[in-house]
Design brief:
The structure holds 2 protein chains of 2 kinds.
Chain A: E1 6-9, E2 13-18, E3 21-26, E4 32-35, H1 37-45, H2 52-60, H3 68-84, E5 88-91, E6 104-105
Parallel strand pairs in A: 2-6
Antiparallel strand pairs in A: 1-5, 2-3, 3-4
Chain B: E1 12-17, E2 20-25, H1 29-38, E3 51-57, E4 70-74, E5 77-82, E6 85-90, E7 95-100, H2 104-120, E8 125-134, E9 137-142, H3 149-154, E10 161-164, E11 167-173, E12 176-180, E13 196-207, E14 212-216, H4 218-226, H5 236-252, E15 255-260
Parallel strand pairs in B: 2-3, 3-7, 9-13, 13-15
Antiparallel strand pairs in B: 1-2, 4-5, 5-6, 6-7, 8-9, 8-10, 8-11, 11-12, 12-13, 14-15
Helix pairs in contact in B: 4-5
The chains are: A alpha+beta, B alpha+beta.
Chain lengths: 106, 271
């Protein structure tokens, strides 16, 4: 059982959209991640106030033929990995911090 | 004595790389001469400088064995430290101090760091790459140690002007990315020509049985470039600047994989 419902982007990151992918770099340890199309959708949607399960239901399951429970498990694995690197913030309460810097498309 | 003019030798020398003049001052005249010789082709005769560094020499043998480099931002200064040097630089006053032994490699390292920090604010960067100008266009050959940077420089035809065999200097000027010659060399032990040209392409090097060029797009290009960009400071703002510069660069300059066998035939592809 997850101990969080809300996800927000950290401010200590740099991010760019490149085609269907998003590159995210931790500004604290320089780790570089490449998010695929689905992960990019989740990345863009996490705003600290919309619960993750609602994001998956509205942004992912409406666009992809995927079981909601499976999609939520995959999304949880993704956000938890990114949170371990300080790229995302997780909380059981809405997260009031301003979201990540605006992403620039290349 | 009549007919003899005494000229005091200067204790300063201005080293101008990438258009950024840095004055180095040291009371030890022998070391100043050493700097002039080391940076031949990059010593500015005008004497004007945008930045000033005092160098304090410590006696030989006082270095520690610490090889890890630390670069941090503290109270308005960049602090740079390794076993063989300690330096600080205040961008607001454009002044700095370098404490080292007379090993010229220490000064070389400090200059690389300072230029990295300066370039980041201007959208440029230093990258592990050899580079050369051919037909008015610059080509970069990037990779980790052993990838073939110096080999590509050694194999360059006579009509290619070598900018460096080790550290390429990338600037953004009027929206165009330029490669600039540097005195930073690797195994070739030869200072690059002090000239510049717009960058035509960056080749990520790999050795193979035959010569081949493949395009790399998007995230792969950024990742390949970032693996070789010099990246000293862990300061979040600096990291963002470098990342943004790399992303912007790949949006403007083709990044390709160059698999090559180490003979002169590879240069037939570089035109």
């Amino acid at each position: 059982m997850k101990s969080y419902r809300y996800v927000a982007r950290s401010k200590a990151i740099a991010a760019r959209v490149l085609g269907d992918e998003t590159m995210v770099m931790s500004a604290t340890n320089s780790t570089l991640f490449t998010l695929d199309e689905v992960a990019s959708l989740i990345w863009e949607a996490v705003d600290g106030v919309t619960p993750l399960d609602e994001i998956i239901a509205s942004k992912i399951c409406t666009q992809y033929d995927v079981d909601e429970e499976v999609a939520l498990m995959d999304a949880a694995a993704l956000v938890e990995t990114l949170a371990e690197h300080g790229i995302l913030l997780l909380s059981d309460q809405p997260i009031a911090v301003p979201c990540a810097p605006k992403m620039e498309a290349v | 004595m009549p007919g003899v003019t005494s000229i005091a030798e200067s204790t300063s020398v201005v080293v101008k790389i990438g258009g950024l003049p840095i004055r180095l001052h040291c009371d030890d005249l022998q070391f100043v001469r050493q700097i002039r010789e080391r940076y031949t082709g990059y010593v500015s005769s005008s004497g004007e400088a945008g930045f000033d560094f005092d160098i304090e020499l410590a006696p030989p043998g006082t270095e520690s064995g610490e090889e890890d480099l630390s670069v941090s931002w503290d109270s308005g200064r960049w602090l740079m430290e390794r076993g063989d040097f300690r330096a600080e630089w205040n961008p607001a006053t454009s002044r700095g101090l370098i404490q080292q032994t007379s090993n010229p490699y220490s000064l070389d390292s400090v200059l690389r760091i300072v230029h990295t920090l300066l370039l980041a604010r201007k959208g440029g960067f230093l990258v592990h790459a050899s580079s050369a100008i051919r037909n008015g266009r610059a080509f970069l050959f990037s990779g980790v140690s052993g990838a073939g940077k110096t080999t590509m420089a050694r194999l360059a035809p006579p009509d290619a002007a070598l900018l460096t065999d080790e550290i390429s200097y990338v600037t953004k000027q009027n929206g165009r990315y330029m490669a600039v010659g540097t005195p930073f060399f690797g195994e070739l032990a030869r200072v690059g020509e002090n000239i510049e040209a717009p960058i035509e392409a960056v080749y990520l090097l790999a050795k193979g049985p035959r010569n081949k060029i493949e395009s790399i797009e998007g995230a792969g290009a950024v990742r390949g470039l970032m693996e070789n960009v010099l990246f000293f400071a862990r300061d979040p703002e600096f990291v963002k600047l470098v990342f943004d510069a790399a992303c912007d660069f790949v949006a403007h300059v083709p990044v390709k994989r160059l698999t090559f066998k180490p003979d002169t035939s590879v240069w037939e592809l570089i035109r």
